[in-house]
Write a structure and sequence with these properties.
two-stranded antiparallel ribbon; Translin family-domain-containing protein; nucleus; mainly alpha
């Protein structure tokens, strides 16, 4: 019996591969190409339910009724909401990173002085200039009720409040007030909007004087008159103030909560490197400032609706106050015994280790 034949049955016909000019497979029975069909392992066109291939279903037109515009509007609002939240999240991460860099630069300061070191002041100013541009891009999306709707996407303002209050403390040894912080952020946003408008004006293409033909005398007079009329029209129209954004009470309180940790680090490094507590030795030191700051938050009523975060930050602030207290005690009692550059082991002061 020959190969490919069983019980006298003829071998199934297989498709031949076409030539170079016709690379598609060819059906031996019809001579037609085999593209456009689903075929079995023998190259024959597949049948569906032992019948011909079913015709494609016609596309059903979208049915519109009285409710269709309402759902389309809801769809557009949801799309705008998600796009806005994504934009705010990206800008918020950038502002948070720049605020942390400001704090890192301020931690290189060793004494409380109205004038920061020139290098540190220049770095802080450059970071604030970048933050102002980012705030200007964020301002249109957080007007009105959106300021509170996207509050979780604006966590960067807490970090910015921490950086600004820390810089204010290093200059004046006082706490920045809520209205002063809000005014400062509004001014940053306004400066960023102005700088963006100036950059757009500079980017506008100027006509090439070499390729522009000189206008005739009559055309020149007409152009000058048009320019004067345009200037008068611009002067008549009132200039729109750039949109701004400000901080809320939550931004301020949580920023000051985090400020206690930065003050603790500043007190530790400055005491180790200078041999004395930061602040006015004869009048007021950072230990007293930490006591007052801790007492301020202990007296405040706990915010409703955010109890967990409030308690967590309050507990961290208590730890910072205890560490600065211990640092002051060690310096006053054993200060003469400590070599310069000595740093206390503050890790032993953990919550729950109260002395009996």
């Amino acid at each position: 019996m020959e190969e490919g034949k069983m019980d006298g049955a003829p071998a199934p016909k297989r498709a031949k591969i076409g030539s170079e000019n016709n690379p598609k497979p060819i059906d031996n029975s019809t001579g037609n190409t085999m593209s456009g069909f689903k075929r079995d392992r023998h190259g024959n066109e597949k049948r569906f339910n032992n019948g011909p291939r079913p015709a494609p279903k016609p596309k059903v037109a979208v049915v519109r009724n009285a409710y269709t515009p309402m759902f389309e509007q809801l769809r557009d609002e949801l799309d705008a909401h998600h796009d806005r939240r994504d934009r705010l999240g990206k800008v918020s991460r950038d502002i948070t990173g720049l605020s942390k860099k400001i704090i890192f630069a301020l931690q290189r300061v060793r004494t409380i002085n109205p004038d920061l070191p020139p290098q540190i002041q220049a770095e802080v100013d450059s970071r604030l200039a970048e933050i102002s541009k980012l705030l200007a891009t964020m301002a249109p999306d957080v007007q009105g009720i959106n300021r509170y709707r996207y509050s979780r996407s604006l966590m960067c303002l807490e970090e910015l409040a921490e950086a600004l209050t820390f810089a204010h403390y290093l200059k004046t040894q006082t706490l920045l007030k809520p209205d002063e912080l809000s005014a400062f952020v509004e001014e940053l946003t306004r400066k960023g909007a102005v700088s963006e408008d100036g950059a757009k004006d500079k980017d506008e293409p100027m006509p090439d004087a070499g390729n522009t033909p000189a206008p005739a005398s009559g055309e020149q007079e007409t152009t000058d008159n048009d320019n004067k009329l345009a200037e008068k029209e611009e002067q008549r129209q009132p200039k729109l103030e750039p949109l701004t954004m400000s901080t809320t009470e939550d931004d301020y309180f949580y920023g000051v909560f985090d400020l206690s940790g930065e003050m603790m680090r500043f007190a530790t490094t400055s005491t180790a490197l200078t041999g004395k507590m930061a602040g006015a030795e004869d009048e007021r030191t950072i230990v007293e400032d930490m006591h007052e700051l801790g007492s301020f938050f202990e007296m405040l009523p706990m915010k409703a609706g955010d109890r967990k975060q409030w308690e967590k930050k309050l507990d961290v602030m208590r730890q910072s106050v205890r560490k600065v207290e211990r640092l002051g005690y060690d310096r006053m009692i054993r200060g003469s015994e400590r070599p310069q550059g000595w740093v206390p082991d503050l890790t032993a002061d953990q919550p729950g280790d109260d002395e009996e």
